[in-house]
């Protein structure tokens, strides 16, 4: 997914960092809304730092939003659909 979206290695590293952090947050039972808040803060900091080109920043923001909203992004390593993050909230 990231190889098609980004040319800059920094963008790929930031995307992976956000994904890794969200995966860890899932394991401590955070909600999708909380993941979105975390990612928004991360992306805002990147925007303020001007760490990425505006084009890469926009791509990263869109990709992260799509990734967070897709429940299949959070299926456990065993591939069991019953381990989706929002089902652990019960």
From TrEMBL:
InterPro entries (alphabetical): DUF6761
Name assigned to this protein: Uncharacterized protein
Source organism superkingdom: Bacteria
Organism: Prochlorococcus marinus (strain SARG / CCMP1375 / SS120)
Pfam families: DUF6761 (PF20547)
């Amino acid at each position: 997914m990231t190889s098609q979206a980004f040319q800059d290695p920094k963008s790929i590293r930031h995307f992976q960092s956000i994904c890794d952090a969200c995966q860890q947050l899932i394991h401590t039972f955070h909600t999708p809304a909380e993941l979105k808040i975390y990612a928004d803060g991360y992306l805002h900091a990147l925007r303020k730092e001007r760490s990425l080109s505006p084009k890469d920043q926009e791509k990263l923001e869109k990709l992260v939003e799509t990734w967070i909203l897709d429940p299949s992004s959070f299926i456990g390593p065993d591939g069991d659909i019953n381990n989706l993050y929002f089902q652990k909230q019960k």
